[in-house]
Write a structure and sequence with these properties.
3 helices, two-stranded parallel sheet, alpha/beta, 17% helix, globular, 351 residues
């Protein structure tokens, strides 16, 4: 009798341990693997004593510039947490992946933190550059990030640009896009940018831009679109077309959006945004929130910040917060509870 009871308790213990291990595994956050690339992937860590070959964290490059020099078009460069006091310049479409905007900063003593030199190419455009997980700090009147262009000729200098988890707080200029065809911004936050007359996001000759789940707060101008017609400041930079801003927060700006490209009737699609007040935008809008200019479609605005709004529940979890598979936990808990009950009932019937 004692031997049978011992086996029953052992079985129950095994089931309990298995249940605990399963729940523990399901609670582990799902971490997306770094995308593969033609070369590398490359690694940069400013804390290493000296640069290595860049092919692992143990042999990392010391600067981002060295990582870009080693990389080829389409490569991934992983950057460790830290502050990098350098002017990052690229003519190739690398994927520059920081450790998160809260812990990875590019802060040069002068010039732009990030400059895309699409004009410095024999064959244009600079295609597929991705910047993820950085705070960008400017020390002067330069942009935090500039997608530049050469002589305007109607062709785009940068295409398929991607920004994700990018923060610019303060300074005279934010992000400037000149002659860009195709851009996807997610979780980009621009605040306290005080350049008179220029947007925290300044657009000249930009098409197919989608900006989602970001914020524009306490800027002189949140977003400004320059005209590109003959005789305009952006003449020849390429047409402005299909500019969309959705599930973003606009608050505290002197002007949220200014569309100066009125001659071509380019409409900025700014539906489903928070304007700092539940009544919607002011200016060309009828509400009490941040003001907007003409040629901005603001219909169906959000009644609260996008993070709290049901329409924008697709917003990603903040960096570092575990993603829990709740239904998986429920299913596995139910399964093991059923097995435990079955074991107990079987034991009682045996007695």
């Amino acid at each position: 009798m004692h031997k049978t009871k011992s086996k029953w308790y052992i079985r129950a213990i095994y089931l309990g341990v298995a249940l605990a291990m399963t729940v523990g595994l399901l609670m582990v956050p799902a971490v997306a693997p770094v995308e593969g690339s033609p070369g590398g992937p490359w690694y940069v860590d400013g804390s290493v004593a000296a640069s290595g070959d860049g092919l692992s964290w143990l042999t990392a490059k010391k600067t981002i510039g060295e990582g870009i020099t080693a990389a080829s078009d389409g490569d991934t460069i992983n950057v460790a947490a830290g502050t990098y006091n350098e002017h990052v310049v690229t003519t190739i479409g690398v994927k520059l992946i920081g450790s998160g905007s809260g812990v990875t900063t590019i802060a040069p003593s002068s010039l732009q933190p990030v400059l895309l030199k699409g004009w410095d190419l024999t064959v244009r455009p600079l295609d597929g550059f991705r910047l993820q997980g950085f705070t960008l700090v400017t020390a002067d009147e330069n942009h935090a990030l500039l997608a530049g262009s050469g002589t305007p000729d109607g062709a785009y200098y940068t295409t398929n640009l991607e920004l994700d988890d990018i923060v610019v707080n303060g300074g005279q200029r934010g992000i400037g896009l000149n002659s860009v065809g195709g851009a996807a911004f997610t979780n980009v936050h621009l605040s306290n940018i005080s350049s008179s007359g220029e947007g925290a996001l300044e657009l000249t000759g930009v098409s197919d831009l989608l900006c989602e789940e970001g914020s524009f707060e306490n800027n002189d101008i949140g977003v400004r679109l320059q005209p590109t017609g003959a005789g305009d400041i952006g003449a020849g930079y390429g047409p402005n077309d299909n500019i969309q801003l959705h599930c973003c927060d606009f608050s505290g700006n002197c002007k949220a959006i200014e569309n100066l490209d009125i001659a071509t009737t380019t409409i900025i699609d700014a539906r489903r945004n928070w304007w700092g007040h539940e009544s919607g935008p002011s200016g060309e809008g009828s509400g009490s929130g941040d003001s907007i200019s003409t040629n901005v479609d603001f219909s169906s605005w959000l009644p609260m910040e996008f993070q709290d709004c049901e329409e924008c529940l697709g917003a990603p979890s903040p960096s570092g917060v575990p993603t829990v598979n709740h239904w998986g936990i429920v299913a596995m808990t139910t399964l093991f509870a059923g097995l435990l009950v079955w074991t107990v009932r079987r034991r009682r019937l045996a007695l």
